[in-house]
Amino acid sequence: MYLPEAFSLILFLLIILLVPAWRKFYFFPNNQGEKELRKGKRIEYYDFLKGLAIFAVVIIHMAWFYAHLKPDFEYNYFFVLVNALTRFAIGVFFICSGLLLGPWEEVNGKAKFFSRKVSRIFFPYFLVMLLMGLYFKSSILGFVYMLLNGTALVPYYFVTVLLQLYLVYPLVSKYRRSKYFLSISFVISFVSTVVLGGVTIFGAWLFTNFFFFFAYGMHMRDFFLGEGKFGRKEMKFWFWVLVMYFLFVIFLPSFYYNARFFYALAVFNILYFYRRKIKKHFISFYEFLIKTGRVSLWIFLIHFQIGYFVSDIVFDYNLNFCLEYPLILIITFFSSFGLSLALSSLYNLLLRQFLIK
């Protein structure tokens, strides 16, 4: 972790700890909803969030290509800002993952729970990895190593971390309503990420680095799914977090990574607060991102390869940067989206035919 990034996280933490009301809003929030939870029904708003998050992921990785394929852009201030402002994405994904899981003790068919996660998330990952392994003629040992530790491509660590979190979930679920659940999970992730610099085992990122996001979703599940309401003071706090983060990014520019323990939560909560207005005033955008969110896994799995291919072609034309970057981003995103729709439909069809009786 870069020094400015670590410094910003430590300073954020100190400020929040020193202000009693802020400390309460962050570590001990109201987690009770106002309505009865809707069970068994897909909630479109969280597809919208996933759609927004995956678009941010594509933006991050298109900037990554500039930093690594065009040395002159490695420390370009524009890309430093773009990268920092879109780093809410992975935190939002993990929050949604924790939030959409009910208490483990209420899960009917625990074996089915894991088989569904394997078929819906990890088998698509395996298939994409298999195609890549065949294309690059990887050895069996190399293929298995990269499959398990998520090092085949830059984004794939996310899948291995998510697998670990699903395995940990039954062990921690019963503590999710505990008063100190968030505090303890924050300490685990803060030490793992900031103090230890990001813990890995055999090259794989350990779940502890991102556990806080997942735990936040679990802890706040009743509030968000029960359509709880934030108070004015609480919303002011989250807006201040946003303002402070923007100031850090402007005056302490650095290549920030995904441990956005304050920024990701602020974005998540502010979007939740304005969710109805977003839907009302930006209905077309909202509905498009819902469709995007429903195939976000497939976009996640294929966008990097598509982006690399598109960048390699577009870079050869030496276009003006103001045209070149948006062109790469647009082509990559919509190509990934279109192909993901096709892959998702085909995969779901095969799943119904061969795996689901």
Sheet with the most strands?
2 strands, antiparallel
Helix content class: over 70%
Quaternary organization: single chain
Q: What class, by secondary structure content?
A: mainly alpha
Shape: globular
Put simply, the count of helices is 17
- Strand elements, count: 2
Radius of gyration: 20 Å
Q: Uncertain regions: pLDDT < 50 for 5+ in a row?
A: none
First-to-last CA distance: 47 Å
What's the rounded overall pLDDT mean?
91
In which order are the strands of the major sheet placed? 1-2
**Helix-strand pattern:** HHHHHHHHHEEHHHHHHHH
Beta-sheet strand percentage?
under 5%
The overall number of domains is 1
Would you write up a description of this structure?
Helices cover 72% and strands 1% of the residues. The protein has helices at residues 3-18, 20-27, 44-69, 77-85, 89-99, 110-135, 140-149, 157-172, 181-195, 211-219, 221-225, 232-251, 263-273, 275-281, 283-294, 296-315, 321-355, and strands at residues 200-201, 204-205. The protein starts with a helix and ends with a helix. It has a two-stranded antiparallel ribbon. It has 17 helices and 2 strands. The chain has one domain. Helix 14 packs across helix 15 (283-294). The longest helix has 35 residues, at 321-355. It is globular. With 357 residues, the protein is mostly helical.
